[in-house]
């Protein structure tokens, strides 16, 4: 019995010692676990030499740094602002599985397993991470927009790596390893949009007048690596695209003016697909086809650009004197799965204006209803008339024995308070032609000039007063005025009679 008690005491003592020693042994094991500092040097270039492309990259022996990039390709230099992430490979998460997935899909599918480096590559293209032994799959989870195809990325690395390996396969573990994943880069795609003329970002028009828009997209030098190149233009509700009268045209070239562009031959429709705006989507989409990407890539030295020309009209939703912004978005995707979009630095704007009037007596203290006017161009050659869809149009002035076009012009009538207005005119000078005056007033003989500006509709001080002269009063029949005229007439008749009598007697 005593012997059993001694064994129990010894066993209990052993367990107590083990509980104290075990953590120390575990910590010691952790301290002795090999760790590798992985230094990722991100490079970019306009192109890489064919031999390194075919080899999948240039070997840096023993994980050492590469000191000379000259033989790698054209304009090889560090690439900043690339975000790397990695995932440790297991029996369930294999390289074969991950290689078939985009970076975005990996991030979403293995959200808990993916580790993202805390810092993006710096100005030297460097990002570092310390890792225990294992096999890791590294990929780019974020990168600049101008990055396209890649060389040696994504990459798989198994740690530890060794140097000075002998004939028995033994060597010294590397504590620091340098890797050089590479990308092809080009100029970041740019898009600009103009109104009325190339390099013009503001214009004003009459409602119903065709407004020309010009979209210009620069062609990146690495366009061959792009899998998508699309322009999307969502129209403001104050603009209308009419499928029956508005046009969309696509050009490749390098043009200084709109007229020079329109004289060139349009691009074959085989090179792009198009979706025109409708009342629901209000969106214009022009996307290059695979053939279009190849065709434009033949001129990707910036000698040619992609142009989209189309027209709209301003509609009655427009606010007088206020800018209507019309922007565009260039969406592009370049390998490996890098999707981005850019817009113009200065989106163009278009405007329309108006003018308010008040009809008064000559003294300006009585407002007069019922006056009727036409609006003429400042050269007196055109009348303003109604067009379909609540728009304006200009018609020639014809005033002859056989025809008078004024009957087809729009008539503006002063209301009970003497006020009337016109909305939706281009900023310019015009003429009011009065065709009917209020009762007891005289029609103005000369056209009345007025000017439409950005502020002419909204400013109270710009309300233009139009005065009418009252008709002269004619005395009524039977009044004292009539008696005077009768007396004068009889007197003249008497004088004439006496003269005639004297002549006969002589």
Descriptive report:
The protein is α+β, with helices and mostly antiparallel strands. The chain folds into 3 domains: 33-185, Immunoglobulin-like (Sandwich); 191-351, Immunoglobulin-like (Sandwich), CATH 2.60.40.740; 354-468, Sandwich (Immunoglobulin-like), CATH 2.60.40.10. Helix content is 18%, strand content 37%. The strands form 11 sheets. Strands 16, 18, 20, 21 and 24 form a 5-stranded antiparallel β-sheet that branches. A hairpin with an 8-residue loop joins strand 12 (162-163) and strand 13 (172-173). Residues 24-31 have low confidence and may be disordered.
Q: Terminal Cα separation, in Å?
A: 194 Å
Count the E strands: 37
CATH topology of the largest domain: Immunoglobulin-like
Mean pLDDT: 84
Approximate strand percentage? 35-45%
Number of domains: 3
Percentage of residues assigned to helices? 10-25%
- Uncertain segments are 24-31
**Which class of the largest domain in CATH terms?**
Mainly Beta
What structural class do helix, strand and pairing data support?
alpha+beta
């Amino acid at each position: 019995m005593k012997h059993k008690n001694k064994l129990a005491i010894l066993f209990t003592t052993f367990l107590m010692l083990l509980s104290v020693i075990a953590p120390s042994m575990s910590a010691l094991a952790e301290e002795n676990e090999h760790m590798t500092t992985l230094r990722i040097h991100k490079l970019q270039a306009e192109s890489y030499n064919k031999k390194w492309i075919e080899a999948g990259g240039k070997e840096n022996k023993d994980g050492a740094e590469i000191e000379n990039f000259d033989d790698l390709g054209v304009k090889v230099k560090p690439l900043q602002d690339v975000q790397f992430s990695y995932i440790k490979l297991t029996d369930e998460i294999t390289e074969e599985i991950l290689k078939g997935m985009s970076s975005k899909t990996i991030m979403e599918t293995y959200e808990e397993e993916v580790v993202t480096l805390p810092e993006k590559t710096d100005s030297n293209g460097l990002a570092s991470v310390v890792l225990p032994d294992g096999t890791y799959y590294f990929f780019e989870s974020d990168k600049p927009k101008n990055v396209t195809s890649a060389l040696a990325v994504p990459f798989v690395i198994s740690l530890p790596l060794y140097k000075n390996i002998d004939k028995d396969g033994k060597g010294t573990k590397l504590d620091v390893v340098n890797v050089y994943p590479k990308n092809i880069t080009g100029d970041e795609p740019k898009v600009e949009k103009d109104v009325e003329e190339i390099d013009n970002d503001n214009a004003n028009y009459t409602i119903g007048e065709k407004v020309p828009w010009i979209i210009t997209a620069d062609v990146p030098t690495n366009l061959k690596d792009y899998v998508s190149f699309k322009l999307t233009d969502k129209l403001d509700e104050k603009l209308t695209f009419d499928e029956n009268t508005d046009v969309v045209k696509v050009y490749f070239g390098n043009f200084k003016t709109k007229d020079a562009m329109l004289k060139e031959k349009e691009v074959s429709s085989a090179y792009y697909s198009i979706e025109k705006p409708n009342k629901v989507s209000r969106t214009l989409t022009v996307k290059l086809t695979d053939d279009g990407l190849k065709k434009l890539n033949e001129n990707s030295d910036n000698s040619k650009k992609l142009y989209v020309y189309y027209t709209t009209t301003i509609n009655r939703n427009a606010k007088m004197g206020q800018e209507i912004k019309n922007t565009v978005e260039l969406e592009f995707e370049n390998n490996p799965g890098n999707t981005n979009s850019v817009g113009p630095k200065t989106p163009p704007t278009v405007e329309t204006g108006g003018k308010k009037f008040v009809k008064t007596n000559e003294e300006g203290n009585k407002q007069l209803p019922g006056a009727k006017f036409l609006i003429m161009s400042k050269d007196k050659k055109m009348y303003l008339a109604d067009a379909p869809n609540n728009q304006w149009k200009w018609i020639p002035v014809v005033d002859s024995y056989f025809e008078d076009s004024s009957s087809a012009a729009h008539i503006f009538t002063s209301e009970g308070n003497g006020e009337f207005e016109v909305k939706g005119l281009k900023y310019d000078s015009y003429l009011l032609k009065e065709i009917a005056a209020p009762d007891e007033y005289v029609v103005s003989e000369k056209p009345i000039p007025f000017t439409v500006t950005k502020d002419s509709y909204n400013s109270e001080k710009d309300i233009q007063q139009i005065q009418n002269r009252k008709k002269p009063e004619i005395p009524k029949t039977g009044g004292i005025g009539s008696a005077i005229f009768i007396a004068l007439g009889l007197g003249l008749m008497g004088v004439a009679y006496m003269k005639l009598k004297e002549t006969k007697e002589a």
